[in-house]
Amino acid sequence: MSYSYVEGWAHYSEEMMVDEGYSKEDFKIRIGQLIEALIRCCRYLASISVHCENKSIEEVKDFFVKNAYMTETTAMQEAERAAFDPGYLNYTLGKIYLKNFKKKYFAKYNGTKTLKDFHNMIVSMGCPTFKIAEKYVLGSLAVRQLGSLAVRQFGSYQLAINN
C-alpha cells in the first residue's frame, strides 16, 4: 500500500471539493481547507528539516509557530511528531504527485476524459505507488485479461483492475 497515494488522495480531495464548488457560499470552508493545507505543507518541510538537514526539535517548533501560526504547545507536538514520524510528509508529497499525474492524464487524453473519469480511475486502483499507477493509466504497461479483470504487469508486480 502506498501511504502517499492514500493520504495524497485525501489531501487532494479536500482542495478539489472546494475548487469544484462545495459550500462556495461559505468562505469558512475554503479558509479551513487552506489552513489544513498550510499545516501539511509545514509538516512536509519539517520532516525534511529534521531528517535531512539536522534541524533540532526546537528549531522545527519555531518553524511551526512562525509559518503555521500554531501555539507553542501545538507546535512542539508537531515538531516531536516530525522526529518520530518522517512519513507525515506524505500528505503533501502525495498531493503533489497526484496533481502532476492529473496533468499528465489530461494531456494524454486531450479533452476526451472528465474529472470524474480521472477520479474513478484513481479510486478503482486501490493504492499502488504513483509510478505503477501512472504506467498503468498512461499506457506503458503490458495488459492481459483475466476474467473481468484487466491485469497489468509492472516488473514483479501485477495490478488487477475491474473492467
- Terminus-to-terminus distance: 21 Å
Going across the biggest sheet, name each strand in turn: 1-2-3
Arithmetic mean pLDDT: 86
Figure out the total of helices: 7
Query: How many structural domains in the coordinates?
Result: 2
Computed CA radius of gyration, to the nearest angstrom? 19 Å
Order of helices and strands: HHHHHHHEEE
How do the helices and strands line up, and which of them pair or pack?
Blueprint: H1 3-19, H2 27-52, H3 57-67, H4 72-84, H5 90-109, H6 115-124, H7 130-137, E1 142-146, E2 149-154, E3 157-162
Antiparallel strand pairs: 1-2, 2-3
Helix pairs in contact: 1-2, 1-5, 2-3, 2-4, 2-5, 3-4
Protein traits:
3-stranded antiparallel sheet; mainly alpha; 163 residues; 10% strand; flat; single chain; 7 helices
Commentary on this structure:
- The protein has helices spanning 3-19, 27-52, 57-67, 72-84, 90-109, 115-124, 130-137; strands spanning 142-146, 149-154, 157-162.
- The chain has 163 residues and is mainly alpha-helical.
- A three-stranded antiparallel β-sheet has the order 1-2-3, with helices on one face.
- The radius of gyration is 19 Å and the shape is flat.
Structure summarized in a few sentences:
This protein is mainly alpha-helical and 163 residues long. The chain is 64% helix and 10% strand.
